[in-house]
Write a structure and sequence with these properties.
By secondary structure, the protein is of the alpha+beta class. A 4-stranded antiparallel beta sheet has the order 2-3-1-4. It has a single domain, classed as 2-Layer Sandwich (Alpha-Beta Plaits), CATH 3.30.70.
């Protein structure tokens, strides 16, 4: 099966449960986390994830909608982008 990779970026004031909420939503829909990087900078949480959605029945649009609930409840900024779009935007 061909992977369908998507970048997820999470930004916001550091608080308990961010990783649990986001990764739990991904797990619930059979979305595999390929890579994750997170850091706290001056009280702000920053996380990037590369996930494979090929095993999920969720579309990117449906995933964005579900993550927007977490975004609103936790006062975060969550961005979801297909890998090819992300790469073309950040090409040097």
């Amino acid at each position: 099966m061909t992977k369908e990779l998507v970048f997820i970026t999470v930004l916001g004031k550091d608080q308990k449960g961010i990783i649990a909420r986001v990764s739990g939503a991904l797990f619930k829909h059979s979305i595999n986390i390929e890579d994750v990087n997170q850091k706290i900078w001056d009280g702000y949480f920053v996380m990037t994830m590369l996930v494979d959605i090929s095993g999920s029945t969720k579309t990117i649009g449906e995933l964005k909608k579900e993550l927007s609930v977490i975004e609103n409840e936790m006062s975060l900024k969550i961005q979801v982008q297909q890998e090819n779009i992300f790469k073309s935007m950040h090409r040097v």
